[in-house]
Amino acid sequence: MIHTEHLIKDFGAFRAVDDINLDIGKGEIFGFLGANGAGKTTAIRMIIGLVLPTSGQIIVDGLDISKGSEKVKHKIGYMSQKFSLYPDLKAIENLEFYAGIYQIPFRQALKNIQPIIEQFGLQDILKNRTEDLPMGYKQRLSLVAALVHDPPLVFLDEPTSGVDPQARREFWQVINDLAYAGKSVIVSTHFMDEAEYCHRVIIMQDGREVALGNPAELKAAHSSATMQELFLKVLGEDNAKPE
Amino acid sequence: MPNLNRIKAIAEKEVFHILRDSRTLTIIFIMPLLQLIIFGYAMNMEIRQVPLVVDDSALNSSSQALIDAFIHTDYFHLVPKDEGILNPGELFKERRAQATLSIPQGFGKDSFTVLLKIDASDPNSAQMIQNYANGIVNNRFAIAGAGITLQPLILYNPDLKSSFFFVPGLIALILVMICALLTSISISREKEMGTMEQILVSPVSATEILLGKVLPYIFLGLMDALLILGVGMLLFQVPFRGEFIVFLGFTFLYVLTSLCLGLLVSTVAKTQQGAMMMALGMTLLPTLLLSGYMFPISSMPVILQKITYIIPARYYLQIIRGIMLKGNSVRHLYQSGLSLLIMSVTMLIIASRRFKLRLS
To answer: Is residue A176 within a helix (H) or strand (E), and if so which, with residue range?
Structure first.
């Protein structure tokens, strides 16, 4: 579904993303791991066409993203770090707006997202102003908003930051269901325990790939018991300095 | 091709923002009223009841008739002559009088010359006093056999009421300020909140975003124009001699131009603060000073005269003064209207070109 080749992004003299090559398949949960500033967000923004790469190629579902065609944009669902919701709009008005800009009749959009709304328990807060909602609800609503047009590709940039562990588990249950239904889910996170939920992960540091693969296989290869341990090991090796 | 459904989605959302944000509503409806009242009552350029000291040495019927002509207007009132001080310099220094009228002996028989001294520390008032005095002498106290007399006939605003001048001007000023401010803020706010990112990921095009943002404000701009016009007519008795539909049509063009100016600002400004400063900077002073509102364009240096061609209010002032005071119809105004149309289309094109569908 997603193919990138030698993806590079420079901001002036600073190289934010350095030679990233990926292949992400249908129904896969793919994780971007790394500390803040490792280049996860920039990489995701390039894949969805928000940021133009300095060099390299990105093919999304057979289409070159740099062309910025309408067709490819319909395939992408995106939830940004900031939970892009309008605080002065009611929850349901936010969803209506996003359905509107994807030209989905709201009735059909509701059909698309009804199961997730119920799974998240959002039915009762749809009439509330978004600014009055607790963080956890905003996060869930933001994911629902990214799904109104039923996209085959879902990008979640640090979706669980600032949310309690219970809510995080529920959130990952929904991500799992999305992948099970055949959507590719691309998630960035700095929570190592969340990496276990991913089918494959890329660990990034200073814009570069330091590890790529299945979490269990990666742990075995680096003889680490947990993702946390693995993370410290691969970053340490790459830096050639003790952690 | 811009897609109507997507434009509608953006416009509808914008309406929610407007209706729920009390600050926007304040800017739209309270600010014009405040300005109207401040300009209307504080920035009054008429003069009334100028204190006048008369030194009448003739003491005959002619001199009395002249004095009566002065004090029977609303413009002058007679300050009782104080025996001690007669020197105009002293009178002016103590601000007991703003003008003195000296009538020499023999006035009305062998001489028709009188001396009017005016305190010109405020040149505007001095100019007005001189004009009024001329008017009184020429029109109401016609003196025979004094050679050529100029008989001015003042059209459209014979009493030179300043409300006739500032109400149309204020419509021009407030519309351009508010429209440019609101659109530029509404776009930069989305940039600041991060919601713009979400819109950019969607299939919406730059033109669709810009049109969706502009549509609700066209309606608001026209409402504002009607509000100022209505209150102006009610409080200050300004006339409206043209046709309403002509006013509406040309005001629509002006609102459109102002909104497109706001769009242009928003493609440059990154924050709401920046947008606000830029929108005000590009509208307030240029409109006040260079549109012909305060100062006549014909008396400006050539280079400034050239600059006035890019000030939208320059065209709208001709239009609004024409409609309200002269009863102009489309045939008198189409050139100015065309200029506004060209300006708005040009700015819209530049804005949608400059508007980045990507973050970097």
So the answer is: helix A165-180
Residue A240 banded pLDDT, cuts 50, 70, 90: very low
**What does the alpha-carbon distance between residue B137 and residue B70 come to, in Å, rounded to a whole number?**
8
Considering only CB atoms, A51 lies closest to which of B16, B198, B359, namely B359
Q: Is the model's pLDDT at B1 over the cut of 80?
A: no
Inter-chain residue contact B201 with A73, CB threshold 8 Å:
yes
Shortest Cα–Cα distance, A16 to chain B (Å): 13
- In this prediction, residues B170-178 reach a mean pLDDT of 91
Find the distance separating the first CA and the last CA of chain B, reported in whole Å: 25
Which residues 6+ apart lie within 8 Å of B303 measured at CB? none
What was the pLDDT predicted at B114? 83
Of B186, B201, B207, which to mutate for an interface test with A (greatest number of A Cβ within 10 Å)?
B201
- The beta strands (E) that lie in B48-175 are given as 50-56, 76-78, 99-103, 115-118
Task: Map tokens 């010109």 to a residue.
Answer: B120
User: How many residues are given for chain A?
Assistant: 243
CA B102 to CA A93: how far, in whole Å?
77
A88 with B21: CB under 8 angstroms? Answer: yes
Hey, which residues does A20 pair with through a beta bridge? A7
Total residue count of chain B as it appears in this document: 360
Contact A11 B360 (CB under 8 A): yes
Q: How confident is the model at residue A145 (pLDDT cuts 50, 70, 90)?
A: very high
> Measured between CB atoms, does B12 come within 8 Å of chain A?
yes
How many C-beta atoms lie closer than 10 Å to residue B192's C-beta?
16
On the question of pLDDT at A67 being above 90, the answer is: no
Joined together, the tokens standing for residue B26 give 């304040």
Structure tokens at A155: 């990008």
Closest CA to B263 of B346, B204, B359: B346
Cα separation, A153 vs A178, whole angstroms: 10
With an 8 Å Cβ cutoff, are B16 and A88 in contact?
A: yes
A88 contacts B21? CB cut-off 8 A = yes
Residue B103 pairs in a beta bridge with B56
Enter the pTM of the model. Answer: 0.80
Residues of B in contact with A153 (CB under 8 A): none
- Which chain A residues have a beta carbon less than 8 Å from that of B197? 50, 78, 80, 82, 84
Predicted confidence (pLDDT) per residue in B289-311, tens digit: 999 888 888 888 999 999 999 99
Dihedral, A133, A134, A136, A142 alpha carbons, nearest 10: 30
Tokens of B51: 């204190």
Which of A51, A73, A82 has the CB atom closest to B358's CB atom? A51
Query: What average pLDDT does the structure give for chain B?
Result: 86
How close is the nearest chain B Cα to the Cα of A242, in Å?
A: 36
- Smallest Cβ–Cβ distance between B203 and the set A74, A89, A93 belongs to A74
CB contact under 8 A, B359 and A50: yes
- Report the alpha-carbon distance of residue B171 to residue B165 in Å, rounded: 11
Q: Does B17 touch chain A (CB under 8 A)?
A: yes
- Decide if B32 contacts B224 (C-beta within 8 A): yes
Q: What are the distances in angstroms from CA A35 to CA A40, A53, A77, A205, A220?
A: 9, 21, 24, 7, 22
The predicted model gives B53-78 an average pLDDT of: 84
